[in-house]
Amino acid sequence: MSNNSDSQAILSRIKTGSSWLFGLVLSLVAIFILMPLLLKIATVNGNQVGVLETWTGGVQSEPYPARTYFLFPGFSQTMFTYPLSLQVFVMNDKAYNQEFAEGREKDAYLVQSSEGQDMHISLNVQWRIDSSKIVDIHRTVRDNIEEKMLRPVVMRVVKDQATKRTAIEAYSGEGLVKLQTDIFIALTDPNSELRTRGILVENFVIEGIRLDPKYIGEITERQVAVQRRLKADEQTKAAQAEALRAEAEAQADLKRRVVEAERDKQVGILNAEKESQQSMLAAEASKRQVVLNAEAQQQKFVLEATGTRDARLLEAEGTLAIGKSEAEAQRLRLSAFAVAGADAYVKVEVAKAFATAHQNVKGYLPNDMSIYTLGSNFMDAIENMMGRTGVEEPQAEATAPVQQ
Considering the entire predicted model, what is its pTM? Predict the structure, then answer.
């Protein structure tokens, strides 16, 4: 009984485990089946922008930048992606690689010139999507943007510009460059249709214009004629330029000579004025020198006269002093002779002088002549020599002592 009970328990456990495992497998299968419907993974690459649509909210108003998004529930949401990188649209008759450009085969644009000539224009447009307008583009265009938006506007602008020109003007040279520039300006105008709708044109190039071969021959002939005319015009202009150059050189030489003559005239005037001023300055300096010399001479004469006057005054004062001294000395001598016995002293001195004067005189006096011959005695002889018989006694005068 116990063995049966254990067997039943084991079978019961096996059944229970199998049921649980089966349920887990069923759950995993259900998850894998329902996962794409419940959770969707959407990736917006680095050169793309995304626009999200949902069942309940419709198109979302804001674009989705590059990253990976988990959409839940996935079955009700869809992420649309648009490239933001530069794209190329062509209209030409060349075979092109669809990987690098969008367009149609053999699709050069046929327009007519202003005079009615057919022109097959091959062109190339580089463009990209404005990410800020991608939601509007998704709502209005969504796919085939180059066919639905770009082609019609490019054709209209090219036609508007090409039909204003003659075929020879648009075919080559400056005319072709001008046509290409005008089309590019019209396509990139901030108020243009493409710009306002979210298409940014980065570059526009006319690859070439194909015309009727007969008309090309006429164009060639016209161009040759134009080249000849231009050559003649250039030769004429060159001759005129040479003449103008010679005239300009002559005018320049004349002006140079006039300027030099005027310069020499001005230099002569300036030199004359300079010499006149120098002469006036020299005369003025000479005059001043003469005046200074005269003043110096006058001062010299004044100084010399003053010196002479002072010297003479000093000399006179000296002479006067000497005279006064001599007069005083003479007065004193005379005063000395006026005292008693002075007369006898004088007579003695006279006799001595006389004797001295005649001591060597020989042959003039008699041998027996002596001093006494002149008088009865020595004193009488002296008196006879002096020419007087008696001496008057001088009156003694009271004299004041001389002040030193």
Answer: 0.49
DSSP string for 325-393: HHHHHHHHHHHHHTSTTHHHHHHHHHHHHHHHHHTT--SSS-TT--GGGGSSSHHHHHHHHHT-SS-PP
Backbone angles phi, psi at 136, to 5 degrees: -65, -40
Report how far residue 290's alpha carbon sits from residue 171's, in angstroms, rounded to the nearest whole number: 99
Task: Report the percent of the chain where pLDDT is more than 70.
Answer: 71
pLDDT 10s digits, 268-316:
888 888 888 888 888 887 888 887 787 777 777 777 777 777 777 777 7
Taking the domains of the chain in order of start, what are their residue ranges? Answer: 2-82, 86-211, 339-404
Q: Residue 87 in contact with residue 127, Cβ under 8 Å?
A: yes
As a whole number of angstroms, the distance between CA 82 and CA 15 comes to 56
pLDDT in tens, 323-332: 777 777 766 7
CATH of 86-211, one of 3.30.479.30, 3.40.50.150, 3.40.50.970, 3.40.1010.10: 3.30.479.30
**What's at 181, amino acid-wise?**
T
- Across 349-371, b (16+ Cβ under 10 Å) vs e yields eebeebeeeeeeeeeeeeeeeeb
Q: Tokens standing for 109?
A: 């644009």
Element containing residue 103 per DSSP (H, E): strand 102-103
218 CB burial (10 A radius; 0-12, 13-18, 19+): middle
Cβ burial of 176 (10 Å; 0-12, 13-18, 19+) is: middle
What the block records as the tokens of 347 is 């007579």
Cβ neighbours of 347 (radius 10 Å): 18
* Residues 148/131, Cβ–Cβ less than 8 Å: no
Return the beta strands (E) in 167-285 as ranges.
199-210
Instruction: Give me the chain's average pLDDT, please.
Output: 79
Q: Which helix (H) or strand (E) holds 82?
A: strand 77-83
- With tokens 């002075």, the residue in question is 342
